[in-house]
Automatic annotation (TrEMBL):
It catalyses: L-arginine + H2O = urea + L-ornithine. Binds 2 manganese ions per subunit. It comes from the Eukaryota. Pathway: Nitrogen metabolism; urea cycle; L-ornithine and urea from L-arginine: step 1/1. It comes from Nicrophorus vespilloides (Boreal carrion beetle). Keywords: Arginine metabolism, Hydrolase, Manganese, Metal-binding, Urea cycle. PROSITE patterns: ARGINASE_1, ARGINASE_2. This is Arginase. The lineage of its organism: Eukaryota, Metazoa, Ecdysozoa, Arthropoda, Hexapoda. Its EC number is 3.5.3.1. InterPro entries: Arginase, Ureohydrolase, Ureohydrolase_dom_sf, Ureohydrolase_Mn_BS.
Length: 352
């Protein structure tokens, strides 16, 4: 068992170093705001794009192949017209996530890392489902969040569906749901074994019960305090992807960051991740070479002052850049052909 794992890990390490060619990225906007009551979160994709997202990603590597797939649109389909108890705007969430799932699966099948811009976190149901479809189940999820988003319609105190996507995705929780009309496309197919939380600090009573009873890997802020972000991410990856062969999905709720770093979000909580920790964890995932999809959700440009919005959007872009290979230590150039700018002879001498 141990030996098999060792060989697999070594194999993946070699593969990673052989395939070091440019990344392919697909951007998907999901301007969905009905999973929670605050208006504005639907403008997240526009604000993140308008802050120069593509240009800044391109600055990481001019050869990176970036394609913007535009925004997801949906209409409420007839088979979802029924209401479900204590799930606000259920029919919108169900209809939107069906489209999201199809789009995400397509982008991943096009050979691209899928970057989904929310929108509120209920879209995580669609993005993770799409990733599962594209990779036939072989994925691992890091849910970076102040919240567990693990309520069912029976346990939620708010009825807001952005607090429920994890419970909808988990195989082990499928019996806790009533029949959900128009959600047959969504088979809860991820096992809780392959998901880990990082950053929790505002967890509801029932969510805590489920995490403990089912042994879900969950690192709260006090664990980050205790072990440091680097060890926490190593432990999380080890748990959800022990053979290092799964496609990794990072569902990044901007409220995982401290409310001072990312104030423009609907359910901000003090005492969260620093931007440094938030970036570092993304760099670690990028270094695995197995990042398959990222969601960046819950940026709400209607909350806070203009500078709050700027800081929040900028934090989101830093996290995205880290996920796509930006190095804070600066790029290491191996060959003269890789020099981004025309240089004069003395600099050439440093390389050769
Ligand atoms: N994606 C989020 N920001 N979720 C916040 C959820 C808050 C609370 N647990 C609820 O169920 O309503
Ligand atoms: Mn969330
Ligand atoms: Mn949250």
């Amino acid at each position: 068992m141990l030996k098999k794992r060792g060989i697999q890990v070594l194999f993946n390490c070699i593969k990673r170093n052989l395939h070091n060619d440019g990344l392919k990225v697909g951007i998907l906007g999901i301007p969905f705001d009905k999973g929670q009551p605050r208006i504005g979160v639907g403008n997240g994709p526009r604000f993140i794009r308008d802050a120069g997202l593509i240009k800044r990603i391109q600055s990481i590597d001019k050869n990176m192949d970036i394609k913007d797939y535009g925004d997801v649109s949906y209409t409420v389909s007839k088979d979802v017209s029924e209401e479900v108890e204590n799930m606000r705007e259920y029919e919108h969430m169900a209809s939107c996530c069906r489209e999201v799932s199809k789009n995400v699966a397509k982008i991943i099948n096009d050979g691209r890392i899928c970057l989904s811009l929310g929108g509120d976190h209920s879209i995580g149901l669609g993005t993770v489902d799409g990733h599962i479809q594209a990779k036939s189940d072989n994925i691992a999820v890091l849910w970076i969040d102040a919240h567990a988003d693990l309520n069912t319609n029976k346990t939620s105190a708010t009825g807001n569906v952005h607090g429920m996507p994890m419970a909808l995705l988990a195989k082990e929780l499928s019996d806790y749901w009533p029949y959900l009309p128009g959600m047959d496309w969504q088979k809860p197919m991820i096992s809780l074994r392959n998901i880990a939380y990082v950053g929790l600090r505002d967890v509801d009573v029932y969510e805590r019960l489920v995490i403990d009873k089912l042994g879900i890997t969950a690192f709260g802020i006090e664990d980050i305090e205790k072990y440091g972000i680097h060890s926490v991410i190593n432990m999380a990856l080890e748990k959800v992807d022990p053979y290092q062969n799964r496609s990794i999905h990072v569902s990044y709720d901007i409220d995982s960051l401290d409310a001072l770093e990312a104030p423009s979000t609907g359910t901000a909580v003090r005492g969260g991740l620093t931007l440094r920790e938030g970036i570092h964890l993304m760099e670690m995932v990028a270094n695995t070479g197995r990042l398959g999809a990222i969601d960046l959700v819950e940026v709400n440009p209607s909350i806070g002052s203009a500078s709050d919005v700027r800081n929040t959007v900028d934090a989101a872009i830093h996290i995205i850049m880290a996920s796509l290979g930006h190095k804070r230590q600066g790029l290491r150039i191996k060959k003269i052909q890789e020099m981004p700018l025309q240089t004069f002879p003395p600099t050439r001498d440093l390389i050769n």
